Amino acid sequence: MGQGGGPRRAQAHDEELGRAVAAAQEGDEAAFAVAYRLVQPGLVGYLRGLVGTDGETAEDVAAEAWLEIARDLGRFRGDGAGFRGWTATIARHRAFDHLRRQRARPRPTALEQDVLELPGPHSTPASALEAISTERVLALVATLPRDQAEAVLLRVVVGLDGPTAARVLGKRPGAVRTAAYRGLRKLGERLGLDGVTDGGSGTLGESR
């Protein structure tokens, strides 16, 4: 997807991101700019999924989030992947503040089951989604139940692994893996993508 880059691409930059964050915490403004460049596209994509596809609104919410990120940067402890999760959590809070102001915060949908046997990483449409226009995918993501939409956004757009996405959402990893799988399967069906089956095991590239 144009705004994100997917888990593999995001994780490939996490070492660079970790170095940039550490330097930024020492006062290196150029390093903070590097961290911003690595995180911002996925963060905006995630916010567009939460507050709507109006790019200006998502950018405004992201700007509010970055003000808080910059203010509290010294308190952060963790690596590059952890920083992605931390910034996503802050952005999520700011998005819900925005939705509350609009009196339009949706209620999450309860999962029917916590753990599900999932197809292997090559049997999901996640990689194919990255090549489809962001506008089209986000419009489809908006039709998913809230738990599935957020799980897909955090996994595919922000590029978080399962445990980190679970921490952002305040849920168990099994619940987030289930929601992400169900959401990706629904998107794959609606987009006419092949390769989504009910057989096999694995968890979107993770071990259970």
Give the secondary structure arrangement, pairings included:
Blueprint lengths: L5 H7 L1 H12 L3 H23 L3 H18 L7 H22 L24 H4 L4 H8 L4 H13 L3 H8 L3 H19 L17
Helix pairs in contact: 2-3, 3-4, 3-5, 3-8, 4-5, 5-9, 8-9, 8-10, 9-10
What is the count of β-strands? 0
Listing every helix as H and every strand as E from the N terminus to the C terminus, the arrangement reads: HHHHHHHHHH
Distance between the termini: 26 Å
Q: Biggest sheet: strands, sense, closure?
A: none
Strand percentage: under 5%
Uncertain residue ranges:
108-125, 195-208
Helical element count?
10
Shape: globular
What structural class do the secondary elements suggest?
Answer: mainly alpha
Gyration radius from CA atoms, angstroms: 16 Å
Mean pLDDT: 77
Helix content: 55-70%
Structural commentary:
This protein is mostly helical and 208 residues long. It has helices spanning 6-12, 14-25, 29-51, 55-72, 80-101, 126-129, 134-141, 146-158, 162-169, 173-191. α3 packs across α4, α5 packs parallel to α9 (162-169) and α8 (146-158) packs across α9 (162-169). It is globular.
Provide tags for this entry.
single chain; 208 residues; mainly alpha; disordered C terminus
Question: Could you give a quick summary of the protein structure above?
Answer:
With 208 residues, this protein is mostly helical. The protein has 10 helices and no strands.
